Amino acid sequence: MTLRRRLLLLLLLATPVVWVGAMAVSFYSAQHEINELFDTELVRLARQLQATLPSTNLGAPTDTSSMPPPLAGKEGEAEPKDLLLAVWDGNGRLVLVDREGLLMPYLPGQKGFVELMLAERPWRAYYLPSPSGRWLVAAGQRHKERRELVLALTAGPLLPWLLTLPVLLLVMAVGLKRVLRPVAALSAELACRAADDLKPLRGTDLPADLRPLVDAMNAQFERTAGLLQRERRFTADAAHELRTPLAALQAQWDAARLSPDSATAADTLAKIGQGLARLSRLVTQMLQLSRVEHLDSISQQVQIDWIALIGEVLSDVLPLAEHRHVELACEWPAAGAAPLPLRGAPPLLAAMLRNLLDNGLRYSPAGGHLTLRFGSDTLDILDDGPGVPAELLVRLGDRFYRPAGQVESGSGLGLSIVRRIAELHGLTVDWGPREDAPGFRVRLRRNAPRPQALGPASAGR
Question: Domain 298-446, CATH 3.30.40.10 — does that match?
Answer without folding.
Answer: no
